[in-house]
Amino acid sequence: MVYFFKTLCGEYTIYMGKDKEENEELIKYGQPEDCWFHVDDLSSAHVYLRLKPGMTLDDIPDDCITQCCSLVKANSIAGCKKASVYIVYTRWKNLKKTSDMVAGQVGYHRPENVRRKKIEKNTTIVRQIEKSKQELYPDLANEQERRLKEIQIQKKAHRKAEDKVNRLIQVERARVKEERSYDRIMGEHNMTSNTDINATEDSAAAEDFEDDFM
Fold this sequence. Notes:
2 domains; disordered C terminus
């Protein structure tokens, strides 16, 4: 079972696992747009924020970060009793899971890409978020596979569009190059006027006459 919530602004979806087994599924079958939240140095729920395609950590609205952090704190047995705790968050794709880790434990591929935020207890925010709570049983593996296929199709279409543009650029460059080459051939210094032709013919005729005379 996975719990789904709506952010208070309504633009983003938040979800988290019911228990450590569900957390393992979420770690394994997340999506590239997901951002992961967890209480630092304490056990807690794994909370995910589904971002919009192309968004980075810097693009996440501050109020959404606060809402996710508040929800994580409220779903930590030890953290919920403290006045404040630190929350760590990073992109799902930065999570690293090895065979020697216990259920729910993760590491990071790039620790420098993990951010840390201090959050104080805020029951008002948590209660408002929990009003949108839904208990669902999504096929996480299938959803991940479908999303990855969508991304592959989009990348392929983007590459095709780029290739088309590059081909058009090459054709235009070749056309301009050919025009410039033709202009050089047809330049005044390479052209002969009618006057020049007549002069050449008169000169040739004079030479022929002199040859005949001699």
